[in-house]
Prior knowledge:
Helix content: over 70%
Strand content: under 5%
Structural class: mainly alpha
Radius of gyration: 19 Å
Amino acid sequence: MKSSQTFKTVLLVLLSFAAYHYFFLNFKPIKIGLDKITQQGLISYVLTYLIIGIPIFTGTFFINKTTCFFRNLGLSLDVLPAIWTSLLFSTPMFVGGLIFFKFNQQIDIENLIAGTIIAGFMEELYFRGFLFGQLFRKTNLGFIPSILLGALIFASGHLYQSQIISELIGIFLITFSGAIFFAWLYVEWDYNLWVPIFTHTLMNLSWNLFEVDSSALGDFKANAFRGMTILTAILFTVLYKRKKGLKLRVNRQTLVLKKGI
């Protein structure tokens, strides 16, 4: 890929995501305005995410006009394999929740749907499918430079969950690592965005179904089972690809810059 084309793509991705992020900062007033129209908070929540995502959708179209919009974002591949793999990956967190934590008796269904299904889908779509995905798939940039900005923004976006410095550091590191993990899954499962979407959703669901923590931090037990989930996903992915005779897409040749594309 020519350096000029890489530069144009990077510029378009950054400008599109900057516009999205500006609208995201106004998420609350947009949703409040929509609440007055729809009279239904969950519908307004979805509509708000779609409205602030207009720069993302526009950027995706202009980056590659000849390829299917959904394919560009990783949404055109099979859903069923993503469901069963994600269920397998997230099993340790649900087992740990059942054994060591109480069931959350104060679950609000709308908040649960918003914090699991909608958040999991939209965050993966905008951060992994677009910001990371377009940089890694459409330019010469390797995995590290492609994920760095998105991981920083993704992690920073979760810092509202605490005011204590030590907890803020922990939340940042955990969510930063999560961004890298979901991006890696996206790449290694042939850019099937449904894999990180369902994995992210199920991990959030486990966190909300049980009284684990009000933030993304969690205690030792919670993080031990979260770590097991991540380890399960990594080991299964590597072993599966070896069995199929497939090489890992993220390797020494694709970490910093990709050549010959």
